[in-house]
């Protein structure tokens, strides 16, 4: 049988050709970097000979479309006015003095670096060419030095840093390409432009492959030269601002990390984007998939950059400590490749397949617990700590920021709706239990929604205007939290402890029970390894010091001991519950009730010494939130407590102890 090829319809052929011509025009107008432009043109040529009905054709078209629309050369101009930056940070955030200071210092350093004069080294073996270039560039305000050949230039680059080397291709001793390679080795950040004669365009392409930013053909057109150098300077300036340590904000949720990031972008006049890395499992989510199948897509980083349309946003990578446990490969090296301006100027997205320079992006990481980050990554980060807020701070934040914003967002007028301080306190105490203010903001939003509805129904309703604690309770329903400690009874075998986790400080209760058995220690409540070991140590301590503690030394002989820490669904770990466990046991075995309103924290050794703990401020704030009136800290935490603001310690008694025996009479009531 003979198959005849169906003749192609002429109109269809021309449609596709037209499309490709349009693409070609876009490539030419897109001001792509030369290396990218040549990749795009090659891809286009391939498409011209590809049958439009096969999958490769549409993959190719989509690819080119994506490539062209990336912001290869688009920046927003940075605003480096520090006074203005400070004003914006203050206007948008209450307190956070140390955070704001660190950010302003950081911006000041970056700004100074970016204002350094732009240094150019002109390398040409012809005296006249050197002099001409030097004259033109000096007139533009650059600092210019010259060298006669590659070797001399190399020596100069070795001695001081240049931003740009303009090198002739053909020179004696060391030619332009050799110089380019040598410079890349000793000063990777220095850019090189190669100047070629007419006949050596192919060498120019080689230069680009070896890392030159651009090439210029002789005779040099001055306008082209001026524009090129100005572009490189802009790029360098943006890079200088993003260079240096990578900022990482660490602290409990809702303490303003994201919103400070947004303010930094606002202050600098940059665009802002935020992306969470929680649960990230595969590098390809960040770096994209190779274009081997129809659904292949670029990674999230490049997609966001395309959406923003500029090369220098503030890019917040949230929860870098929560990259999935089962991440394939080494998350630290992948993250560094993305975050570190020394490495990310050649960022390769697998879909894109040509390097995209991310070095002008200002990356900021956030983490709830930096301790969880891999060491190599942590070493490159400048960690700025965000802390939990005191009740007074929360009230100020609510009054000055959250309430006005929520009222606005719900179409309510500030003048007409008045929140009393007591009402804000009611929301904080009865409807939230957190270190930050995220829950507070959510509850205020709920209130505003309900008020808006009531207000619409009857604008003259006086109750709607004055928000009293009663109105809050009426609108938000039964309280979600109570001051659990203040309300609780003192019990035998139940002690109150303070722990520190990624959501800030928290209060825990440790329960101990004894029953007839065969010397088993039963531990329940999702306890981690360290916590289990603390419990074993606590039991051994009590057994070995029984007499001193007034306990029958044979108490364990025909018994089992069970230690339980409620809220079993939440995994718990860390050594600082040791003291709380010891006292639960002592309370149980002496039958002395434990005071609920005394909260304990400290690691305990086998000999009964109490070792210092972390998270002091967060723990004290948690104690305040739960109505605890007395907290016991290890003696060696005294300096940490001394450094806290008055507000944090308000209405709280802090006791320091070096040995378990110092705590017994304080935490346990006499036997009744
Ligand atoms: P995080 O990123 O630390 O989890 P967010 O930045 O999302 O927290 O903050 C939660 C909310 O609380 C935001 O609406 C933020 O504006 C507000 N907020 C937090 N801290 C402050 C502060 N110091 N001043 C004003 N508003 C704040």
Descriptive notes:
Its EC number is 3.4.21.53. The active site is at residues 576, 619. This is endopeptidase La. It catalyses: Hydrolysis of proteins in presence of ATP. InterPro entries: AAA+_ATPase (IPR003593), ATPase_AAA_core (IPR003959), CheY-like_superfamily (IPR011006), Lon_bac/euk-typ (IPR004815), Lon_lid (IPR054594), Lon_proteolytic (IPR008269), Lon_Prtase (IPR027065), P-loop_NTPase (IPR027417). The protein is 46% helix and 16% strand. The protein is an alpha/beta fold. The protein folds into 5 domains: 10-69; 116-241, Rossmann fold (3-Layer(aba) Sandwich); 246-385, P-loop containing nucleotide triphosphate hydrolases (Rossmann fold), CATH 3.40.50; 391-476, Orthogonal Bundle (Helicase, Ruva Protein, domain 3); 491-667, 2-Layer Sandwich (Ribosomal Protein S5, domain 2), CATH 3.30.230.10. Strands 17-18-16-15-19-22-23 form a 7-stranded mixed sheet. A 5-stranded parallel sheet has the order 2-1-3-4-5, with helices on both faces. Strands 7-8-11-6-12 form a 5-stranded parallel sheet. Helix 4 packs antiparallel against helix 5 (97-114), helix 5 runs antiparallel to helix 10 and helix 23 (578-590) crosses helix 27. The longest helix is centred in the middle third of the chain and has 21 residues, at 222-242. The N and C termini lie far apart (107 Å). The relative contact order is 0.07. The model is unreliable at 1-7 (pLDDT under 50). Bound molecules: adenosine-5'-diphosphate. Adenosine-5'-diphosphate is lined by residues 93-96, 253-259, 397, 401, 436-438, 441.
């Amino acid at each position: 049988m003979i198959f005849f090829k169906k003749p192609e319809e002429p109109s269809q052929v021309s449609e596709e050709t037209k499309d490709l011509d349009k693409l070609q025009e876009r490539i030419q107008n897109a001001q792509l970097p030369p290396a990218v432009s040549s990749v795009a043109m090659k891809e286009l040529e391939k498409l011209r000979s590809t049958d439009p009905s096969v999958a490769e054709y549409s993959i190719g078209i989509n690819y080119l479309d994506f490539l062209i629309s990336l912001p290869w050369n688009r920046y927003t101009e940075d605003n480096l006015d520090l006074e203005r930056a400070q004003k914006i940070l203050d206007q948008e955030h209450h307190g956070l003095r140390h955070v704001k200071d660190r950010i302003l210092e950081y911006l000041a350093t970056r700004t100074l670096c970016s204002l350094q004069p732009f240094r150019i080294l002109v390398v040409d073996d012809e005296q006249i060419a050197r002099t001409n270039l030097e004259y033109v560039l000096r007139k533009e305000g650059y600092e210019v030095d010259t060298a006669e050949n590659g070797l001399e230039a190399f020596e100069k680059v070795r001695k001081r840093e240049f931003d740009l080397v303009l090198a002739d291709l053909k020179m004696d001793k060391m030619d332009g390409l050799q110089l380019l390679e040598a410079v890349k080795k000793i000063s990777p950040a220095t850019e090189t432009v190669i100047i070629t004669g007419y006949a050596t365009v192919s060498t120019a392409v080689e230069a680009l492959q070896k890392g030159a930013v651009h090439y210029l053909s002789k005779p040099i057109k001055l306008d082209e030269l001026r524009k090129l150098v100005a572009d490189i300077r802009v790029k360098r300036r943006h890079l200088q601002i993003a260079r240096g340590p990578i900022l990482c904000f660490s602290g409990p949720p809702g303490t303003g990390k994201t919103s400070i990031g947004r303010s930094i972008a606002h202050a600098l006049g940059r665009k802002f984007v935020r992306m969470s890395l929680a649960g990230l499992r595969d590098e390809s989510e960040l770096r994209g998939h190779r274009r081997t199948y129809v659904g292949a897509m670029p990674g999230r980083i490049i997609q966001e950059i395309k959406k923003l349309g500029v090369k220098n946003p503030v890019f917040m990578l949230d929860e870098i400590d929560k990259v999935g446990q089962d991440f394939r490969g080494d998350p630290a090296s992948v993250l560094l490749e993305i975050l570190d301006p020394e490495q990310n100027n050649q960022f390769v997205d697998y879909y894109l397949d040509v390097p995209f320079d991310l070095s002008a992006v200002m990356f900021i990481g956030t983490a709830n617990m930096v301790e969880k980050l891999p060491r190599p990554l942590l070493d490159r980060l400048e960690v700025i700590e965000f802390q939990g807020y005191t009740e007074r701070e929360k009230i100020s934040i609510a009054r000055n920021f959250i309430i006005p914003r929520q009222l606005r967002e719900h179409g309510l007028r500030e003048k007409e709706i008045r929140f009393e301080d007591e009402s804000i306190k009611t929301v904080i105490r009865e409807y939230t239990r957190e270190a930050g203010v995220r829950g507070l903001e959510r509850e205020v939003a709920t209130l505003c929604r309900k008020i808006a509805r009531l207000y619409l129904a009857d604008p003259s309703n006086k109750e709607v205007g004055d928000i009293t604690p009663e109105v809050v309770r009426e609108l938000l329903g039964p309280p979600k939290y109570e001051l659990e400690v203040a309300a609780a009874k003192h019990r035998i075998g139940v002690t109150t402890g303070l722990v520190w986790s990624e959501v800030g400080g928290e209060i825990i209760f440790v329960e101990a029970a004894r029953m007839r058995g065969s010397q088993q220690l039963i531990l329940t409540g999702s306890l981690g390894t360290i916590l289990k070991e603390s419990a074993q140590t606590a039991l051994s301590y009590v057994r070995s010091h029984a007499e001193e503690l007034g306990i029958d030394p044979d108490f364990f002989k025909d018994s089992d001991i069970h230690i339980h820490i409620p809220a079993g669904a939440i995994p718990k770990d860390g050594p600082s519950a040791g003291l709380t466990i010891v006292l639960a046991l002592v309370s149980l075995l002496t039958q002395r009730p434990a005071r609920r309103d005394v909260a304990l924290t400290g690691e305990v050794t086998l000999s009964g010494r109490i070792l210092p703990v972390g998270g002091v401020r967060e723990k004290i704030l948690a104690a305040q939130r739960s109505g605890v009136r007395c907290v016991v800290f290890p003696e060696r935490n005294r300096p940490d407590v001394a450094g806290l603001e008055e507000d944090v310690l308000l209405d709280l008694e802090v006791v320091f102890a070096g040995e378990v025996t110092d705590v017994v009479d304080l935490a346990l009531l006499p036997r009744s």
